[in-house]
Amino acid sequence: MPDKQETTLPTQQPGAAAPKPAGQPSQKSMTKAERRELQEKQRAAKAAAKAEAPKGGAGGSAAKTKGAQAPAKKAGEAGPAKQSVLTSKELGHAIPEEGAGKRGPRIFTHFGLPKPIGHTVKGDIHPAVVRLGLSFSEFKICGANARCIATLTAFKNVIQDYTTPPNSTLSRHLMTHLSPQITHLVAARPMSVSMGNAIRQLKLEISNSDIDLAKDVLCKKIDDYIQDRIIMADEVIQESAGRKIKEGDVILTYARSSVVEKVLLRARSEGKKFSVIVVDSRPLLEGKALLRSLTSGPDPIPCTYALLPALPSLLTEVTTVFIGAHSIYSNGAVFSRAGTALVSMMAKQRNVPVVVCCETCKFSEGILVDGFGKNELAPAHTVQPHGSTPTPTSEPGLEVLNPLYDLTPPNFITAVVTEVGLIPPSSISSIPLALGKTIL
Amino acid sequence: MFDIHQAFRRSLQNPEIAYPLAAIIALTELIENSDAGTMFELVNAIRQGAETLKSKLENPIGVDAGCELFIAFVTLFHHESLTLTDLKRELIRQGQKYAEEAMTYRKKIAELTVGFIKDGSILTHSHSRVVMQTLLLAHQHKRISVFVTEARPRGLGLKTAEALIAAGVPCTVVLDSAVAYVMDKVDFVLVGSEAVVESGGLVNAVGSNQIAIIARAAKKPFYALAESYKFHRLFPLSQYDLPSHNSKILSFSSPSRPTRSASISRPAEDTTTASDPPTASASTNDTEPTSSTSITQQQICKTNPHVDYTRPDLISLVFSDVGSLTPEGVSQYLVGMFAG
């Protein structure tokens, strides 16, 4: 048990309501700046302690120190380890450390810091969902449509393997069974709007159904959802958007949208001759995959590949810009891969029409006015260091900020292609009403 | 054999009837003369008729709007309890009733717009029946003066000016190129329409886009008047995305002399490519003294567009029989009418 009597430094028991030791003013009476200073001091002290501990003292006490710094955080050894006790108070929350003195970027922390991969599985999670969670957190499955379809397919597996416990019915118990699975996926990577809408629809189906709903019926409904709202919707969008591609056009697209890829391939298969400029950006460099897909195959499309900084010089050649969306909000704002807003704004400045291809399953009822309200930070492993650029591991004071999405305001969008037609962004809010739905 | 074109032309003989309305009347007559056995066949026949009608026209937008409206009405019509003959009779009756009611739309629009007109000067473009009716009504209640653009090459603005002067409205004809000159004297701009499209933009006689841009630069309101049967689900992304656009428009003529400079000797191009707007028709040829070709008005008329597209952000309000709409509101109305 930690030995607290022989301390010379004030000690704080984590979570204790005991009176604060003398010599250290109560936290409330300090100003924010003072509290921050204290935090900094404590972190620095902790870093020093960690550095010292392997050097000074016997291997035994070093091991103890190391052990004490594990998530239990009740350390209180003699000497340098005492300083670590001071820091334990603010380390009481669950974020595991990434390294000495590291706390992540100062801004955008309200999105939650990126979680490291290989986190533990809490509770009774179906293996398909575990597999999916890993694919999400490693960015093996990327893109709103792909994630939505993968989630629904995994949930079909879960439903098939589910047996109703006695004294309960499927329609009542299934939801409680699915909730931890959903939480697990959200912990791997924040949910996309398309996934959210699909799950909400699934919940509606379950709760509105008969008391003796068969599992097969539910799986069929999931299949129907995928078929109608994603596959068929994509077909209609390909046709409508394809009509806007004419002979000799130069189409610009950014990163990789599954819908835009389909539109371009379909227009090509109809025999139209046009060329494509693929604009791409680090760290994900998704445009490369799109480039490969457009130029391979029996009828390759002539393509140009460029990085984002080259955009202004290319825009003079462009006829139309086609972009995809992660989600689209009621005010017509488009939430898409970071960099899309730049492309749209620059294009609109030069009177190049910007066309967004988006299925209605990606509509969100909220309103977003900038990319700060809702976003996601990519984990550090996605950023591969490029040549001799300094990285957070080589320079301790350096943080990498990598938001995955940004918001394009509605006045930079010319048209939105959905399965219900080509509409201006200001009419997004009237689509659900027109389709006779009160929710999307 | 029922000839839809004849029916169409016949309805157009009434000078008050606009293209979309004539199309609806022609389709109603098609139903009367149709021998379709089922609902499906009837709808198909109507669609066929609409296609034939559009194919013969150079500028099919207005007719298309009317046809789409009628086809949407027919397909959404509640018909479970009726036999086919009863259904046909009901459709014809509804069609004729709509045509009659549509004749009152211009008056409704005029009454709505007059509320927005104060004593002052108005600029209008070319000739529009609904604008005429509005201006004449306004003249009865307010003191207005009107500038009308000439609207070459067809010169329909002169028709407007003559009619207004005959009615006692102070009016003068303005050159198309003098619109920027006169814009500061004007209080607002009022134009008619061939069609109002899904984006909230306006398709109207060529020159409307120019006037809208100048009005925006001079900070004057730009109002468009359109009957509801002119609302169309088309969504042009740019001028060259209109259905009336073809490769003949603004094409370069092939050179007759080898000594011409390289820039003029480009053969007639497909003008849908790239983003650089084609330059005006080859009036530079005139300076070549040894040229034996002289440009005639007819040639200019043939290689220039008849309609252009005005973007929705340049339009202040659209006045219609369904009320006064913002350009965004047009799309919401269309979505409400046609979707689902």
UniProtKB/TrEMBL annotation, chain A:
Biased composition (Low complexity): 12-28, 45-83
Positions with biased composition (Basic and acidic residues): 31-43
SUPFAM superfamilies, alphabetized: NagB/RpiA/CoA transferase-like
Ranges in coiled-coil conformation: none
Gene Ontology annotations for the cellular component aspect, listed alphabetically: cytosol
Keywords: Cytoplasm, Initiation factor, Protein biosynthesis
Listed GO MF terms: translation initiation factor activity
Signal peptide annotation: none
Transmembrane regions: none
Record bears the keyword Iron-sulfur: no
Stretches for region Disordered: 1-86
Similarity field: Belongs to the eIF-2B alpha/beta/delta subunits family.
Assembly description: Component of the translation initiation factor 2B (eIF2B) complex which is a heterodecamer of two sets of five different subunits: alpha, beta, gamma, delta and epsilon. Subunits alpha, beta and delta comprise a regulatory subcomplex and subunits epsilon and gamma comprise a catalytic subcomplex. Within the complex, the hexameric regulatory complex resides at the center, with the two heterodimeric catalytic subcomplexes bound on opposite sides.
PANTHER family: TRANSLATION INITIATION FACTOR EIF-2B (PTHR10233), TRANSLATION INITIATION FACTOR EIF-2B SUBUNIT DELTA (PTHR10233:SF14)
Protein name (Swiss-Prot/TrEMBL): Translation initiation factor eIF2B subunit delta
From TrEMBL, chain B:
Keyword Secreted: no
Polar residues composition bias: residue spans: 251-264, 285-299
Biased composition (Low complexity): 270-284
One Pfam short name: IF-2B
Name of the protein this chain belongs to: Translation initiation factor eIF2B subunit alpha
GO cellular component: a single term: cytosol
Major place of residence: cytoplasm
Localization: Cytoplasm, Cytosol
Keyword Protein biosynthesis part of the UniProt annotation: yes
Assembly and interaction partners: Component of the translation initiation factor 2B (eIF2B) complex which is a heterodecamer of two sets of five different subunits: alpha, beta, gamma, delta and epsilon. Subunits alpha, beta and delta comprise a regulatory subcomplex and subunits epsilon and gamma comprise a catalytic subcomplex. Within the complex, the hexameric regulatory complex resides at the center, with the two heterodimeric catalytic subcomplexes bound on opposite sides.
GO molecular function: guanyl-nucleotide exchange factor activity; translation initiation factor activity
Annotated region described as Disordered, given as residue ranges: 251-299
Cross-referenced InterPro entries: eIF2B_alpha/beta/delta, elF-2B_alpha_N, IF-2B-related, IF_2B-like_C, NagB/RpiA_transferase-like
Sorted UniProt keywords: Cytoplasm, Initiation factor, Protein biosynthesis
